Amino acid sequence: MSPQNKPLDIAIIRCERTQESCPGTSCLLSFQEKKHTFRNYDPQTRLVGFFSCGGCPGRRIFRLLRTLKEETNVKIIHISSCILKEEPFPKCLHKKDIINSVKKLGFKVVLGTDNKWEIELQSKRNRDTPYSKDDPILEGSEHW
After folding, report:
1. Which of 29, 14, 19, 18 shows the shortest CA–CA distance to 90?
2. What's the pTM?
3. Does the pLDDT value for residue 48 go beyond 90?
4. Which of 16, 24, 59, 78 has minimal CB crowding within 10 Å?
5. CB 19, CB 50: distance < 8 Å
């Protein structure tokens, strides 16, 4: 395969605390079935990293992303829905810092991995607590 036809490599960062009760099924099935935030990827796209943040405050992020940069062709990092959501999971107090760390290392950020993030965004729009359009968590990132 020539370098220009190289498949796209992506990775997913998930919440350390949530992985105690979630095996990652929803994220992985969404990727495999090219649904939700993975819907526009080519069938040849490869998921080459699926790892936790390392616990608060995202203590493992820099080290793991540096390894991805050195050993893979990953250009896009999905921030899992469990990091983004505020219900029913424990709210991640460090999600903005995690997202900014990923961006600073030169990766493109995509928010969400399954429909749970979109459901929460819609729920917040329908209540009195929507994210404002200028909320940094939504800035410069793709999501649906």
Report:
1. 18
2. 0.82
3. yes
4. 59
5. no
Beta strand 74-79 pairing with 46-52: unpaired
The domain limits of the chain are 3-138
At residue 3 the predicted structure's pLDDT band, cuts being 50, 70 and 90, is low
Angle at 115 between CA 89 and CA 144, to 5 degrees: 115
CB 110 within 8 A of CB 141: yes
- Name the class of domain 3-138: alpha beta
The H or E element spanning position 100 is: helix 95-104
Is-contact 65 97, C-beta < 8 A? no
Q: Is the per-residue pLDDT at 18 higher than 90?
A: no
Contacts of 35 (CB under 8 A, 6+ apart): 29, 114, 115
H-helix or E-strand spanning residue 12: strand 9-14
